[in-house]
Structures are given as C-alpha cells and as structure tokens.
Amino acid sequence: MAAAKPALPDFTRPALAPGILAAIVLFVGVALIDSSWFIAVRFVVAILAVIVAWFAIQGQKWWWLIVLLPIIVLWNPVFPLGQSGTGWMSAQLIAPIFFVAAGVMITVPRAENEPRPR
Question: 21: buried, middle or exposed (CB in 10 Å: 19+, 13-18, 0-12)?
C-alpha cells in the first residue's frame, strides 16, 4: 500500500536562501566595519540585494523594491557613500530583518512544465 504524497505548493521561495545569506553577512560585517575587509561585505550584500530584488520582480511583489533599492544604493561598493557612526551601525543591524522578511514573503509561481521534486 503506497502512502499518499503531500501536495506541493504552486509557488517557490527563491529569495529565502539569498536573504538568509545576506543577513548572515550583514551580522558578520558589523565586526568588519572599520577594516579593509568591509568592501567584501559591501559587494556581497549589494549582489544579494539585487538577486532578492530580481525575485521580487519575478513574483510581482513590487513593494519590496522600496526596501531593497536603498540597500543596493547604500551598500554599493563601486560608489560608496561613506557612511559611518551609529546610523550606519543601526542600518547594518536592521537590514537583515528586511532580508529575511523578504525571503519569507516573496513567492514565485511554479512554471507549468517545471519538474516537481519527488
């Protein structure tokens, strides 16, 4: 007698992994703010923010761009804005909340011909 397989949802959460990874990098980045290694934190956070923003566009969750675009600009490694002080430290600790929330709330519909995991 075969057991019934649970039904799979009609959506995926592709932004969850990059959102959690960005949150981890931001927390680790707090210790690196005044070091030369912080440029690597900027690169990783900006790239992951672009990835999460892309998934928000795919899932038609446009309102997440209101949060993600400022993160992309503030952590931009190419043209850094030179943030420092308590405000920057606070942003470094608040941004992970938005990344994890976006990762959980952004859903993308499954394609019709997409194979489902067994």
Answer: middle
Q: Report how far residue 109's alpha carbon sits from residue 12's, in angstroms, rounded to the nearest whole number.
A: 6
Residue 60 lies in a domain: yes
Exposed/middle/buried for residue 22 (C-beta within 10 Å: 0-12, 13-18, 19+): buried
Q: Give how many domains the chain has, as a whole number.
A: 1
Q: What is the DSSP letter of 108?
A: E
Question: 32 and 41 in contact (C-beta within 8 Å)?
Answer: yes
Its pTM stands at: 0.84
Q: DSSP states of 76-103 as a string?
A: -SSS-----HHHHHHHHHHHHHHHHHHH
Tens of pLDDT, residues 71-92: 999 999 888 777 778 888 899 9
Look at residue 52 and tell me if it is in a domain.
Answer: yes
In a domain, 5, yes or no: no
